[in-house]
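Hi V.,

Quick status before I head out on leave. The structure for the redesign project is tokenized and pasted below; the design run finished overnight.
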């Protein structure tokens, strides 16, 4: 199914390496990607809500704001820069990515928080670490205010969790500690893989009407434990 882009909505971006090869082999590789991501975010005026960089795949949560075309422009530039960097280090040529990137539009509200949790908890789900804070290449630590600087954008759903940064972070940490049910993980990842939508029936119907694109697979309602934010 062709990709759907909706202005002012988060989009879960998935890009996988060709044949599972390692794109990120050293700290320098991760830092270069994040430097490029930050530079392109500022150039194109998009919002970056979250990321998770694994050795052979990338997950991003991006809001193109009012410029839907900025999403493809950003990913095309990121892919090209990363390919040049990897090929130069490995002294080789050719593509490192598996076809075009995939994406899903995420419903505002509880689905946005659920997708953030999935991205930042994916290293735990894959058994790489036992806690999100132990993985340095996701947005979790930056969201928690760790580090000397932050260029991460906070979605309105995160800001609505509390009146202060301390309260928001405390509630989000509690949310992260909750178990992600298999159906929720499959819905979020599956929507990205198939270029579909992650949300309830009403949201999907609205997007279909706006875009004229039929989405056959629908979400299962409200992600548990995130009705209006973390419980």
């Amino acid at each position: 199914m062709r990709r759907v882009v909706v202005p002012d909505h988060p989009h879960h971006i998935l890009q996988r390496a060709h044949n599972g090869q390692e794109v990120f082999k050293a700290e320098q590789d991760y830092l270069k990607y994040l430097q490029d991501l930050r530079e392109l975010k500022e150039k194109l005026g998009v919002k970056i809500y979250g990321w998770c960089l694994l050795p052979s795949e990338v997950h991003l949560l991006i809001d193109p704001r009012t410029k839907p075309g900025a999403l493809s422009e950003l990913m095309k530039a990121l892919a090209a820069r990363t390919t040049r960097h990897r090929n130069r280090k490995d002294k080789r040529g050719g593509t490192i990515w598996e076809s075009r990137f995939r994406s899903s539009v995420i419903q505002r509200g509880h689905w946005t928080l659920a997708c953030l949790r999935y991205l930042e908890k994916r290293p735990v789900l894959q058994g790489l670490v036992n806690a999100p804070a132990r993985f340095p290449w996701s947005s979790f630590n930056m969201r928690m205010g760790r580090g000397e600087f932050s260029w991460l954008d906070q979605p309105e759903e995160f800001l609505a969790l509390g009146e202060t940064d301390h309260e928001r972070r405390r509630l989000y940490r509690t949310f992260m500690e909750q178990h992600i049910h298999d159906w929720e993980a499959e819905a979020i990842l599956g929507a990205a893989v198939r270029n579909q939508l992650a949300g309830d029936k009403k949201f999907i119907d609205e997007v279909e009407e706006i875009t004229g694109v039929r989405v056959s697979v629908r979400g299962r309602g409200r992600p548990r434990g995130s009705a209006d934010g973390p419980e």
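Above is the designed sequence. Strands lie at 11-16, 47-54, 57-63, 102-106, 197-198.

G. will cover questions while I'm gone.

Best,
W.
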